[in-house]
Amino acid sequence: MADLRSNFIGIKSPNPFWLASAPPTDKEYNVVRAYEAGWGGVVWKTLGEDPHLVNVNGPRYGAIHGADRRLLGLNNIELITDRPLQTNLQEIKRVKKDWPDRALVVSLMVPCEEQSWINILKLVEETEADGIELNFGCPHGMSERGMGSAVGQVPEYIEMVTRWCKQNTRMPVIVKLTPNITDIRKPAEAANRGGADAVSLINTINSIVSVDLDQMAPIPTVGGKGSHGGYCGPAVKPIALNMVAEIARTPELAELPISGIGGITTWRDAAEFLALGAGNLQVCTAAMTYGFKVVEEMIDGLSDWMDEKGYSSIDQISRKAVPNVSDWQHLNLNYIAKAKINQDLCIECGRCHIACEDTSHQAITNMVDGARKFEVIDEECVGCNLCVNVCPVEDCITMEQMTEGVDPRTNKPIDSSYANWTTHPNNPQRVDAAE
Amino acid sequence: MGKAAKLQSQCAGKGGAIHFDDLHPCYSNHEARVEADRCYFCYDAPCMNACPTSIDIPLFIRQISTDNPKGAAKTIFEQNIMGGICARVCPTETLCEEACVRNDAEEKPVKIGHLQRFATDFFMDNVAAHPYERAASTGKKIAIVGAGPAGLACAHALSKEGHDVTVFEAREKSGGLNEYGIAAYKAVDDFAQKEVNFILDLGGISIENGKTLGRDMTLEDLSNSYDAVFLGMGLGGVQSLGLVGEEHPRVIDAARYIEDLRQASAKEELPQAKSVLVIGGGMTAVDVAIQSKLLGAEQVTIAYRRGQEQMNASSYEQELAQTHGVQISTWLQPKTILSDGDQLEGMVFNKTKLDGGKLVATDDEVTLSADLIFKAIGQNFITEPVTIDMALELESDRIKVDGNCKTNAKNIWAGGDCVAGGEDLTVASVEDGKIAAKNIHEFLSA
């Protein structure tokens, strides 16, 4: 049986699943319910300075739905905690005392003045919390006040505040990054320079999820107006995975631990984040959609998969796919694949045909000998995988590698050697292969 | 009222003369969206090709899934102005839904009929304006005989082109079999009349009820007085069993009974029965059998001379009959009607079998008791009105037409059940009306 215990920058938890700093971790009541449900840890919803701030009293969330109103993307305009600092600190202390085996990290956001950070760090240390997470990610509301993503978008500020924190507390420091930047490596490097113990990402993405076409205002609409929010949930997972991988495969950042966040909903999502470089995982939207019980599926699924694959600990999965994340220019141009349609599984919907015919390479028939039939024309197929993705039947279309013979599209023999763009004759900047 | 019922859209039944619950209540918005999401938006969609009127099914379903039921309905009406009734009575399980690729995937087709009903009901209940405007008047006059599906579809398509249409309908109400021939539970709420009014909202169509061809006017009159004529009068005659005692008052024509039932205000106006025998194997047999059950008969048996697979009623219809408690007895050929004065007692059948592919009666006899017998063995075409003065060419005792629904006469077209090859399907009749209208328009524009 796989050992799911997690030790992330010295913070131990019975499993790698933490609840991210967000509404589910705003108070003792919720956090205790989460621990009871089996969550390995929580990052307490971001604390700020008193006087505590306020939230809007109208709608705070908007959503994108898939079939049957399955929630695919959620956006929110909620701010950090709107409860008095002391209330939160008392609850944190009590919860940590009652649940010593669970991770309890406290998210913080105060103005960019060293004294503000020194003051709050002292208060948090007294709670015996396991660590702190610097909220440099919140993209709405707080950023207008020079906090949250307004800090996370300036690497110098990240480095500065991280350093203040490292100099003024014994607690491990996690820096939470905003994805609302051009190159995620820059803020990660800044955090690293400031001495961060880890980074966590991604925070939410600037977003307007939809427009109320009657009110002509963004959703959620508060009194006829809407403000951009932060986007999260399954829809943001691909963006998060890429950003996690970008950091993980940067040699200078190879030792920087990553807490993976962004649309994690199932055990498989979790395994993917771990494989691309995360050391543990933070979840929010899945819990906000389905309740805390979802963690049972994540734990069981991850454990079963690890058993099946022969992995015994989280460390064995973490970063496992990082070496295979490559720049485009290093992909093997001699690798040839062709789509293949399994006629026994094909239901003849024709989506592969029309996608290929209208938008790609005219490489799939719709008629063979006068009968409705969908077959790949190898002479035209570039192996793009679009048909695989639009086919409604799983595994009906597969990409098959050609390992010998001649590619009927180019009439060139299959070359088993590796060759990439850097040496390709069409590349004006090519480097000639060593003689 | 349950939550699902509260969510039900506006098209819940209010009950007709004799109340029958809707066989399939209309989808709620959410149900429709969920079902619409199952559609794969196939290329050259097999469902569309299986629809006799070629409705763009993937498109209208996609419009439902994008919260545009009005647009969905317009897509349907573009090919089939009677999409509303077709959504209720089409044997979708042998047409569009049989062709759905989801059958291959999981043996559960997209419920195209239900979705079509959702869209058309939405339109008819919520949109005041008719979906079409007439073209400028052409001054051409067209006579149509029969205000059933073929005649009304033809009338609508021609009026749309700017021609003036007069429809002669023998009966008091328009709608044809939609009004008189379909089981009450398939079209509750006086739907047939609602649809007639919807079609007439286009303008340019006048219906003269109570006018019968051959009695009130002749075909030659019409041919001479109008620029073009379309015949869609359906089948007026009743097939006979050819048995002694067939005129017994409790041996009743099923089509006539369904018609009376649709028009009756209380079931006491109709013959009551404890034990009912239905002779036949088509949709009418199933309709009358189920309605007999719903009206309180204890025992209802459909007797058919061949096997269940050969029945014209689809397997879905047969199952519907059986789940309503109707018994289906096969390989039985009527032999003798048993009666004692006014009292009907039943029927004696010969068992039948296939002998070298040919159906033959055996000497084995079966007696089934019944106090009411329905004949549902089909109707026939009364040829006199189209042969006395004009000599329209016939084929298999119905009007012969070409691929454009054109008869041998220079300005007469025909479609629906009265033509050779007529399929006894509303949707096929609508398509005939459409095809004829297109050809008539071309003829008049030439």
Concise account of the structure shown:
The complex is a heterodimer of chains A (435) and B (446). Chain A has 13 helices and 22 strands.
Structure description:
The complex is a heterodimer of chains A (435) and B (446). Chain A has 13 helices and 22 strands. In chain A, strand 5 and strand 6 form a beta hairpin. In chain A, helix 3 (114-125) crosses helix 5 (155-168), helix 5 runs parallel beside helix 6 (185-193) and helix 8 packs across helix 10. Chain A has 435 residues and is an alpha/beta fold. The mean pLDDT of chain A is 96. In chain A, the strands form seven sheets. An eight-stranded parallel barrel of chain A has the order 3-4-7-8-9-10-15-16, surrounded by eight helices. With 446 residues, chain B is of the alpha/beta class. Chain B contains 18 helices and 17 strands. Chain B has helices at residues 3-7, 29-36, 46-50, 57-65, 69-79, 83-89, 96-99, 102-106, 112-126, 149-160, 177-180, 191-200, 219-225, 254-263, 283-294, 315-323, 384-387, 426-445, and strands at 141-145, 164-169, 205-209, 228-231, 237-238, 251-253, 275-279, 299-303, 327-329, 332-340, 343-355, 358-369, 372-375, 379-380, 394-395, 398-399, 412-414. In chain B, strands 3-2-1-4-17 form a five-stranded parallel β-sheet, with helices on both faces. A five-stranded parallel β-sheet of chain B has the order 6-13-7-8-9. A three-stranded antiparallel β-sheet of chain B has the order 10-11-12, with no helix packed on it. In chain B, helix 16 links the parallel strand 8 and strand 9. In chain B, helix 14 (254-263) packs across helix 15. Chain B is globular, with a radius of gyration of 22 Å. Chain B starts with a helix and ends with a helix. The chains are: A alpha/beta (435), B alpha/beta (446).
Which helices and strands, and how do they pair?
The complex is a heterodimer of chains A (435) and B (446).
Chain A: E1 6-8, E2 11-13, E3 17-19, H1 28-37, E4 41-47, E5 61-65, E6 71-76, H2 85-98, E7 103-108, H3 114-125, E8 131-135, H4 149-152, H5 155-168, E9 173-176, H6 185-193, E10 198-201, E11 205-207, E12 210-212, E13 217-219, E14 229-232, H7 237-248, E15 258-261, H8 267-275, E16 280-283, H9 285-290, H10 294-309, H11 314-317, E17 336-341, H12 351-359, E18 367-368, E19 371-372, H13 386-390, E20 397-402, E21 406-407, E22 412-413
Parallel strand pairs in A: 3-4, 3-16, 4-7, 7-8, 8-9, 9-10, 10-15, 15-16
Antiparallel strand pairs in A: 1-2, 5-6, 6-14, 11-14, 12-13, 17-20, 18-19, 21-22
Chain B: H1 3-7, H2 29-36, H3 46-50, H4 57-65, H5 69-79, H6 83-89, H7 96-99, H8 102-106, H9 112-126, E1 141-145, H10 149-160, E2 164-169, H11 177-180, H12 191-200, E3 205-209, H13 219-225, E4 228-231, E5 237-238, E6 251-253, H14 254-263, E7 275-279, H15 283-294, E8 299-303, H16 315-323, E9 327-329, E10 332-340, E11 343-355, E12 358-369, E13 372-375, E14 379-380, H17 384-387, E15 394-395, E16 398-399, E17 412-414, H18 426-445
